[in-house]
C-alpha cells in the first residue's frame, strides 16, 4: 500500500511540472528587434510575476542569441524577470 501511495504522489508531481514551468509565460507581439543593443520591443499582456499591466515596452534580453529567433510581427510567448535591477526577457518561445 505504501508503494502505491508513493507512485500516486510521484505521478501527480510529474504531471504538475509542465504547469509550473509555464506559469510565467506571457503572450506578446514583437514590435522591434535591436540586435546591436541586445533589446526587444514587445506589445505584451500582463506580466503577473512583475505585477505589470499589458503595454508596449523595450526589454533587455538575458542572452542576445534569443534575438536571432524572432522578427518584428512574430507572435511569441516569453518570460521576464528582474536581472541586476533591469526587467529582462529570460526566455522566448514561438507561438500563440
UniProtKB/TrEMBL annotation:
Keywords: Signal. InterPro entries: CusF_Ec, CusF_sf. Residues 1-21 form the signal peptide. Pfam families: CusF_Ec. The keyword Signal applies. It comes from the Bacteria. The keyword Signal applies. Transmembrane segments: none annotated. This is Copper-binding protein.
Amino acid at each position: 500500500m505504501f508503494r502505491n501511495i508513493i507512485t500516486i504522489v510521484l505521478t501527480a508531481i510529474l504531471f504538475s511540472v509542465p504547469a509550473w514551468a509555464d506559469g510565467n509565460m506571457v503572450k506578446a507581439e514583437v514590435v522591434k528587434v535591436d540586435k546591436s543593443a541586445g533589446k526587444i520591443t514587445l506589445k505584451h499582456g500582463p506580466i503577473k510575476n512583475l505585477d505589470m499591466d499589458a503595454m508596449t515596452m523595450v526589454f533587455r534580453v538575458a542572452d542576445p542569441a534569443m534575438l536571432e529567433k524572432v522578427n518584428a510581427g512574430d507572435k511569441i510567448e516569453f518570460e521576464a524577470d528582474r536581472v541586476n535591477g533591469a526587467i529582462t526577457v529570460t526566455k522566448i518561445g514561438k507561438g500563440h
